[in-house]
Amino acid sequence: MRKPLIFLAIAISLAACSPKQTQQTAEQTKNNNTNVTGQKAVNEAPTQASTQPAAPFVLKETIRQVGVEGFTDLSLSNATTNVHLYEKNGVIYTLFSASDKFYVSAAKDNKWIYKDKVLDDGSAKRERNPIPGGFFYFDKNVLNIKQIDQDQSIKEISLGSPNLGQPWGLGIKDDLLTSEGYAFVVRDEKVFKLYLLKDMSNPITIPNLNKMNASEFRFVNFANNTIITMSNDKFNLFDLKTGEPQYDQAGQPIRYPFLKGDIIGMSEKGQWVYIEREDDKVKLGYLNDQFKPTNLTTIDNIPPSISLYELYKITKNELTIHGSYEFKGKPSAYTVKIQMN
Questions:
Q1: Kind and range of the H or E element at 237?
Q2: Considering just the CA atoms, what is the radius of gyration of the chain in Å?
Q3: What start and end residues bound the annotated signal peptide (predicted)?
Q4: Residue 178 or 209, more confident
Q5: Which strand (E) or helix (H) includes residue 42?
Q6: Among candidates 201, 166, 157, which has minimal Cα distance to 187?
Q7: What is the average per-residue pLDDT within 89-113?
Q8: Residue 194: how many CB atoms within 10 A of its CB?
Q9: pLDDT over 90 (residue 100)
Q10: Predicted pLDDT at 193
Q11: Cα 304 off chain centre by
């Protein structure tokens, strides 16, 4: 509908010009069309696109097989379902068990540094509970953690004999996601001790007011001292320093409705990031003030979620997902990078 008006405006403008001006203008227009047509088209496209809001989440990269080969050279039947991945300083550690032994493979810059390094030979006949970067076990009443370091050295750390309560499983959270990476939480009677797996030397003490179990921890954000827990299909927010829940105006603990997916971090803008995982797709969104996901974005055609554990990492405006599955019949690790807007 605008074209006739544009042509009319041009005709009036040309009619008002002198013959000499008209000739110069026509020649100049001809030169512009001849030399800048491609550039003009390129410059106009962003102007038109800028009027449309950017998608909240955009797929940037998918590495379907880290290192262009499997993460192990062993013959394993269930390696893809009993795998824990851990990232530290750009190194992706893939931990798995087979034939009573516990192994680790490591990759960096999409190349395997080593494969099938034995982290535990199984001779102690102890129950090993995997955590990102290693496993924990009990020696009588003493709780120990065994980890692989970046220089391939193996270290063991004793956490003493914490009073975990009964059943003891409620007193431990072994793969807690935090704004500073993954953590290990244990209850010790009147306090919780939170150990960041990247540095186990300085645990953070959280008051235990008997209002939550360690196993209920879902996420810790150190920027605003918030603990997110889930119990009885409800989310609760606690203060990291006091151990007290958030209260409503009636003085009751605020409880948010059940979420189908998981909370995996906070954006640079201070929004909680929410994910739902299903087969070869993810749904991503931000949570509003009522802890409800808004504007879910579906990203298709990524590696299927077969492993029990996926590793999530948010850095600035990028979400990275690490996981494991079978690629062309080989136990493999994958990496997916998603732009967050």
A1: strand 234-239
A2: 28
A3: 1-22
A4: 178
A5: helix 19-49
A6: 166
A7: 90
A8: 23
A9: no
A10: 92
A11: 16
Tokens of 127: 């129950």
Is 258 within 8 Å of 282 (Cβ atoms)?
A: no
**Cα–Cα dist 40/46, whole Å:** 11
Q: What are phi and psi of 122, to 5 degrees?
A: 80, 0
Domain boundaries, the chain: 76-276
Q: Would the pLDDT of 36 be above 50?
A: no
Work out whether strand 154-158 and strand 142-148 pair parallel, antiparallel, or are unpaired. Answer: antiparallel
What pLDDT is stored for residue 78 in this prediction? 57
Over 90: is that where the pLDDT of 24 sits?
A: no
Burial of 334 (0-12, 13-18, 19+ CB in 10 A): buried
d(CA 192, CA 205): 6
- In 44-165 the beta strands, taken as DSSP E runs, fall at 57-63, 83-88, 91-98, 101-108, 111-120, 129-131, 134-139, 142-148, 154-158
